[in-house]
Amino acid sequence: MRNKFDDSIEQKLRRLEVAIIEYRESLEERERRDRRDDARDSSRKRHRSQSRSESPPRKSNREREKESDLDRDRERHRDRDRAHDFESERGRERREKSGSKERDDHDRDRSRDRDRDRERRRRIK
Hints:
Blueprint: H1 2-54, H2 61-124
């Protein structure tokens, strides 16, 4: 019975050893692949950085969206300012017209008063 038990354990230990060896080999292979990928990536980055120095950098979608939002905000503010300027200009024109009309009325009233005063003076003399 002891023999069967020992054989069973030995078999399990061999399988475990084989599994450990295969796992170690897969880790080594993964490490080689990662080094190769890192070398390729750094080569690409170097190439990109050289290309970027020759041409303007590309913007990410997020950067483009931010710029687009900023442009829309600027346009909105510009339109609002223009509308405000237009309204204030119209209001100023109205005030100027109204002021000039009042001035004309005032001048007319003063000239009437002067005319009346002259008439009275003539009558008195």
